[in-house]
Amino acid sequence: MYLEALKLQKTKKYLIQGTLFFLLFMLIYTIVDSLNMSYGEMTNDFGLYLPILNIFTNVLMAFLSAMLMNLSTAMVTLKGREGVASNVGFLSVLFGILTYGCTGCVIAFFASVGIAFSVIALPLAGFPYKLIAVLLILAGHLLMYREIEHGKCKVHLDDPKTAK
């Protein structure tokens, strides 16, 4: 079933949808980066390698998140229901906003919901936290694969005797 979902990704609808999701996620990740520290400041403080790694990671996260959203849409098409894993891409965006944002804003947000601690200073302009976000998205892909391959389907295509 996963191969069927991948075949759907090559259709015009999914290519357009994936491109739009990719651009949206790229915009979000770039804005979150700029709110934390501009690429110019990163270059001055850490050298050219860190902005390049951040941009590459943004592209990777945007692509993986867009693919996750497209696979979720394909699952709805193939199975008639949405998977739980489709929300992991948005979870990584929320995680990013709470960790890459300015420390004062994050501390104020956590204090407003009753949490009295937060990250004081993020090493390497928050890059390690971005890697955690990549891991969250990859976990979402694993969950989506599992749901597509092993999830329950109302229609049994293999054996007409078992179809209800």
Stretches where pLDDT falls below 50 for ≥5 residues? 116-120
* C-alpha end-to-end distance: 20 Å
Quaternary class: single chain
Supply the number of helical segments: 7
Helix content: over 70%
Shape: elongated
The counted number of beta strands is 0
Largest sheet: none
Indicate how many domains the architecture comprises. Answer: 1
Structural class comes to mainly alpha
Percent strand = under 5%
SSE pattern:
HHHHHHH
Mean pLDDT: 75
* Radius of gyration over all CA atoms, rounded: 19 Å
Description:
The protein is mostly helical. It has one domain (2-150). Helix content is 72%, strand content 0%. The chain is built from 7 helices and no strands. The longest helix is centred in the middle third of the chain and has 31 residues, at 49-79. It starts with a helix and ends in a 14-residue tail after the last helix.
Summarize the structure.
This protein has helices spanning 2-8, 12-36, 39-46, 49-79, 88-100, 103-112, 127-150. The protein is mainly alpha-helical.
List its traits.
single chain; about 160 residues; mainly alpha; 7 helices
Topology:
Elements: H1 2-8, H2 12-36, H3 39-46, H4 49-79, H5 88-100, H6 103-112, H7 127-150
